[in-house]
Q: What sequence folds into this?
């Protein structure tokens, strides 16, 4: 048995090693800092009027925790559901143009991972942009995770055909 | 009862830096930090703080500092803060005061009163970057003589060894991780030591808690498996999943005292490894009940050699005490391949503080007197000496070896490399750094990949430094330094101390 299909490319993906994620939530903190105007910890949290939104969420129950961010799906339900064209599939990343977002929360409902954040104050959705939106090569959450729970992995993206 | 204990630490949070991320709250295993949602700010209960510095390191805003609450009582050299606190603690609990880590009292650290030699003019020093420098060490018995068979007239081309050679174990550097059991430390920390030992080519010691089954196939070659008074996790397979078997008689942190792993720490997996019922107390008696004499020790040594088909080394570990030299002589004669000496400053997961701080002798004196005695009796070659208890840096290793050890055990230093800050609260099982705990939430904090990397860096750094020091002395192999006390001089020591150490005073 094997998987056959058309090779689409090599994609970068963030994985969380749940067995070493310690639930410190520093990924959330750094994601927010990196997406702030100043990119400075104190300014981002204490002084900037436009509050930056973190795009990663740590799920936790008891001793089990892991950070979850957009999976940048091959077939992104959020993009298909977006009524305003704010969500679109970029090169290897699902991107979100907040200026076009009307805050209908269709994507929030559609996302099977629940990783799109609702910003009720501004009426906008926010999601992980793989830090491309802030011009980084490596996602800041991966770089800053103190326990190396977040890893960047390369995966083969294949358009599947039925096969035995 | 109202507690009269003062907080040991002071927590300062710079309010204008705190971003209320609550990272400190989650990191503190002692529930010291607390977020008040109503006021949207953080508060600290300093009396719960043990000073482990986890929160300080993890605070992304550098808003925290934790410092010792030193000047709480009027300064008094006799009735120190510690004495007063211990008295109050005991008045409140009526129990034995427990502590983790090693003796922290200001007994003389002889390593700090010994200096090394270096080559100048009359003999050349060696540059370890240009010339080979050997740290490899062979543990185990070295033969008195070798029976060789020589083909007559073959000019030494056909030499055959005509006897059975005893097993020896080669390690890449004379630094071995000392006994820390799975149970005392987390599975993750235990595994990190195993990975680092195998990665660097040295050994780790299982302590008395057995060797988890899933680590056996990969790490047995680097394992010293312990056989202690509790006989936990002991069977023939366990003994054979090793490179050496160690009979633990005593431990430097608590000579003459047994051990106790409380029932709540005996999880399913610890129970399986130790071969005891889940949730039962794991009690190690103070003595080994089948060893009351050197002859008894010999019986156990040979029983272990028998069960391992004479393929593994047998080590015997004792705490360094007043008559270590005589005991060591008996141990060698009883058949031990390795004599492990654990000094006054050796660490532990839990010991009565009064014992930790008052029993045993400094390792430097023990190494010197044991080495001297074994040489005098002409049996030094029959066992290797591994020195433990208070080895803090590469210079300590060099000095220990020059005093007569073959290698050293490091325990505390290895834990510090993994994150430990010597807060001494190991016995609570709430280690914020994930080392001395069985709580899965805390134990995850040790990522074996990272911790093993840190440990290997430590071994590498120390090894490089040792090569530099050896080169400076004009020596190109650690072998040539062993027991070479001429390379040592004492500074600020009294006559009797120099005598026991067998070193001259500086300038002599
Ligand atoms: S920073 Fe890393 S360890 Fe901390 S919560 Fe995020 S993924 Fe987990
Ligand atoms: S990749 Fe960047 S945007 Fe996405 S969760 Fe990580 S830090 Fe946030
Ligand atoms: S116990 Fe450790 S983590 Fe908790 S407040 Fe004190 S220093 Fe910080
Ligand atoms: S970790 Fe630092 S910034 Fe975050 S809540 Fe604690 S003190 Fe404040």
A:
């Amino acid at each position: 048995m094997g998987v056959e299909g058309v090779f689409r490319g090599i994609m970068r993906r963030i994985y969380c090693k749940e067995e070493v994620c310690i639930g410190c939530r520093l990924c959330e903190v750094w994601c927010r800092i990196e997406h702030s105007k100043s990119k400075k910890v104190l300014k981002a949290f204490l002084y900037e009027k436009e509050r930056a939104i973190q795009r990663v969420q740590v799920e936790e129950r008891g001793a089990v925790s892991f950070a979850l961010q957009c999976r940048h799906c091959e077939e992104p339900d959020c993009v298909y559901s977006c009524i305003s064209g704010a969500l679109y599939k970029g090169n290897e990343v699902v991107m979100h143009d907040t200026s076009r977002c009307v805050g209908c929360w269709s994507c929030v409902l559609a996302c099977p991972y629940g990783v799109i954040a609702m910003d009720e104050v501004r009426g906008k959705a926010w999601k992980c942009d793989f830090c491309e939106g802030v011009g980084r090569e490596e996602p800041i959450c991966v770089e800053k995770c103190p326990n190396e729970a977040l890893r960047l992995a390369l995966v083969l993206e294949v358009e599947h055909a039925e096969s035995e | 009862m109202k507690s009269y204990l003062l907080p040991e630490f002071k927590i300062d949070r710079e309010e204008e830096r705190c971003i209320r991320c609550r990272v400190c709250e989650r990191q503190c295993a002692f529930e010291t930090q607390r977020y008040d949602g109503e006021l949207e700010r953080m508060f600290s209960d300093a009396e719960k703080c043990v000073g482990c510095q986890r929160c300080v390191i993890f605070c992304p805003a550098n808003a925290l500092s934790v410092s010792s609450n030193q000047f709480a009582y009027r300064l008094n050299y006799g009735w120190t803060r510690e004495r007063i606190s211990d008295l109050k603690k005991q008045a409140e609990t009526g129990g034995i005061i427990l502590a983790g880590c090693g003796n922290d009292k200001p007994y003389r650290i002889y390593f700090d009163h010994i200096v090394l030699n270096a080559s100048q003019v009359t003999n050349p020093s060696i540059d370890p970057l240009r010339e080979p420098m050997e740290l490899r060490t062979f543990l185990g018995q070295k033969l008195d003589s070798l029976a060789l068979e020589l083909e007559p007239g073959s000019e030494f081309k056909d030499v055959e060894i005509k006897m059975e050679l005893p097993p020896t174990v080669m390690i890449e550097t004379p630094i071995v991780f000392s006994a820390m059991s799975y149970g005392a430390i987390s599975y993750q920390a235990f595994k990190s030591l195993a990975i680092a030992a195998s990665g660097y080519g040295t050994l780790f010691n299982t302590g008395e808690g057995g060797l988890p089954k899933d680590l056996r196939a990969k790490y047995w070659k680097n394992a010293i498996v312990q056989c202690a008074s509790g006989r936990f996790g002991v069977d023939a397979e366990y003994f054979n999943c090793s490179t050496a078997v160690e009979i633990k008689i005593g431990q430097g942190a608590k000579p003459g005292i047994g051990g106790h792993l409380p029932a709540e720490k005996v999880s399913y997996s610890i129970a399986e490894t130790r071969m005891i019922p889940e949730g039962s107390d794991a009690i190690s008696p103070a003595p080994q009940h089948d060893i009351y004499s050197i002859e008894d020790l010999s019986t156990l040594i040979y029983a272990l050699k028998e069960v391992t088909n004479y393929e593994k080394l047998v080590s015997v570990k004792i705490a360094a005490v007043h008559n270590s030299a005589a005991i060591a002589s008996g141990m060698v004669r009883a058949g031990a391949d390795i004599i492990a000496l654990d000094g006054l400053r050796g660490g532990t997961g839990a010991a009565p503080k009064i014992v930790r701080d008052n029993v045993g002798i400094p390792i430097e004196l023990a190494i010197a007197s044991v080495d001297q005695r074994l040489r005098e009796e002409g049996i030094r070659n029959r066992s290797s000496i591994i020195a433990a208890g208070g080895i803090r840096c590469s210079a300590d290793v060099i000095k220990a070896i020059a005093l007569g050890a073959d290698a050293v055990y490091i325990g505390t230093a290895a834990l510090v490399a993994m994150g430990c800050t010597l807060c001494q609260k190991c016995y609570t099982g709430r280690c914020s750094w994930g080392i001395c705990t069985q709580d899965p939430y805390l134990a995850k904090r040790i990522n074996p990949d990272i911790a093993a990397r840190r440990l290997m860096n430590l071994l590498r750094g120390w090894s490089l430094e040792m090569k530099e020091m050896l080169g400076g002395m004009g020596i190109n192999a650690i072998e040539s330094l062993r027991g070479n006390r001429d390379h040592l001089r004492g500074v600020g020591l009294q006559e009797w101390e120099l005598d026991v150490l067998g070193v001259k005073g500086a300038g002599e």
